[in-house]
Design brief:
Number of strands: 13
CATH class of one domain: Alpha Beta
Number of helices: 10
Length: 305
Amino acid sequence: MTNNQLEAFVMVADYRSFTAAALHLGISQSAVSHAIRSLEKELDVQLFIRLKADAELTEVGARLLLRAREMMGLYETIRQEAADAQGLKTGTLRIGSFGPSSSLRLLPALLHEYRRQYPMIEVHIDEGPDQDVKQWILDRRIDVGFVVLPEERFETHELVKDQMVALLPPNHSLATQASVRLDELCNDPFIMTEAGSAKIVTSLFHTENLIPNVHFRSAQVISTLALVARDEGVTILAELALPGIKQLETGQLQTEQAYLVKPLSPPVFRHIGLAIHSKKRASPAALAFIKIAKKMDLSKLLLQK
């Protein structure tokens, strides 16, 4: 059993395609097929059901996938620890990121500093919903991920405190108010986010025994913003998920978009941090990324944008 075989196994499972796995690995499809056949022969099991357009994991293949990820992670950790003795010159860092909050607001500044210090580390970024990122950490698909805290299953480090805000059409009756209460948002058509803030928004109304008048459900922030701008309803989102937002010294929020942004009353925040499965088994590249994050004051950087 070789690392190349395990890598081919994981890539085919991730992409559900021998062709896509070959493109990702930079080898021929026949080489990927040979690696999988060799691994299946050695293990005496069938890992995939070959279909015309894609490949599906068998039951035993799904069970072995997690172990394959663990073995690949250990292999990379050994390789990086050897390289670390020479200054962490080479290696791979796999990062999981969710939505605009981390991908556009937090990750660029961290990556800029990380690449400055470790220019030879190859960085892979997977993007998906917050819950997907957490599953990727559990599955060892990524080394470190941005998550909404608290998250007791992992070792975490808080990065920023993100304010939850109400979004209103420009001519809304609450436009002149400095802040908005939850109950004031229950009469209008409500656009319920199904993105990263969904759990928090749902919990807010549930805790106050309030029922929003949900007319739309949207998994995309850009669609939600467009609906508010067209006066189709109101919503609640996380401040960091919004484009073009700048918080002034007065505490007011400004936006160039065609909607109003109002803090909730009382204020509500979500906490965003980095999570890893275990520091004991984390690669030097992942630990270096977290070390940089701990030294940077991202909250100040966000106010400068």
